[in-house]
Amino acid sequence: MMKKLSDRLNSITFTPRSTVWFLLLIAALTYGLFFWQRGFYWDEFPWAWIYYRLGPDMLTKTFTTSRPFWGMIYQLTMPLVGPNPWVWQLLAIVLRWLTAVLLWNILRALYPKHPKPALWASLFFLVYPGMGQHFIAMMYSHFYIVLSAFLLSIYLSIIALKDEKRRWLYFAASYLFAAVNLLTMEYFYFLEFARLFIS
Questions:
Q1: Burial profile 70-99: b = 16 or more Cβ within 10 angstroms, e = fewer
Q2: What's residue 186's pLDDT?
Q3: How far is 11 from 2, CA to CA, in rounded Å?
Q4: DSSP code of 51?
Q5: Taking the CA atoms of the chain, what radius of gyration do you get in angstroms?
Q6: What is the mean pLDDT for each group of 10 consecutive residues in the chain (199 residues)?
Q7: Residue 135: exposed, middle, or buried by beta-carbon count in 10 A (0-12, 13-18, 19+)?
Q8: Among 46, 103, 57, which residue's Cα sits nearest to residue 79?
Q9: pLDDT at 2
Q10: What is the per-residue pLDDT for 41?
Q11: CA angle at residue 145 from 114 to 162, to 5 degrees?
Q12: What integer pLDDT is reported at residue 102 of this predicted model?
């Protein structure tokens, strides 16, 4: 069965636009079933309660001892997304899809002559079963925001190396997004070493 699926996917020619939509379809099928029935889990209950009962400043104060910049990101997302768990679930799906698209763009920029392995790698990244906590949507949406910033930073670095005219602009944007990753949390620190292999 997997062999047939693999052969079928290898026989399809994906354009950049169709790849993006295909990844969105897979994200929706993988994570979107019954997303409206899920609630808040783990630390999301106290964080939502602190924000909506005690105010935004108190939530920021909660993060000041360990991840102060991460608390500021919550200041942006909480009023935009609101207190409904299903909206956070939907946002987590979109952000998970965005990280897969960014990885696909990175691999395509690094290996432009090998589009199929780039697609397979991004698909595996999207549905990797080792990440079993996707349903904790409010918390992991913020992880995906930071991961997206890191991946976008790497992609912009690759583009900077290829575009001599606007190199400084791409590098400046790359360092800005890298700063979001490095200042926000410690989870993706060591991924910064990937820059050594793309330069």
A1: bbebbeebbeebeeebebbbbbbbebbbbb
A2: 76
A3: 14
A4: I
A5: 18
A6: 65 75 88 76 78 77 73 82 86 93 93 87 84 75 90 91 82 86 79 75
A7: middle
A8: 57
A9: 62
A10: 76
A11: 40
A12: 95
Q: CA of 150: how far to CAs of 33, 129, 143, 179, 187, in Å?
A: 28, 22, 11, 9, 11
- Give a three-class secondary structure readout of 52-107: HHHCHHHHHHHHCCCCHHHHHHHHHHHHHHCCCHHHHHHHHHHHHHHHHHHHHHHH
pLDDT of residue 82: 80
Predicted TM-score of the model (pTM): 0.82
Contact in structure between 191 and 151 (CB atoms under 8 Å) = no
Residue 29 φ/ψ region, left for φ over 0, alpha for ψ in the -120 to 50 degree band, beta for the rest: alpha
Q: Which residue has the tokens 């964080």?
A: 47
CB 23 within 8 A of CB 101: yes
Give backbone dihedrals phi and psi of 86, rounded to 5 degrees, phi first: -65, -30
**Residue 9 has what pLDDT?**
61
pLDDT of residue 40: 73
Burial class (CB in 10 A: 0-12, 13-18, 19+), 165: exposed
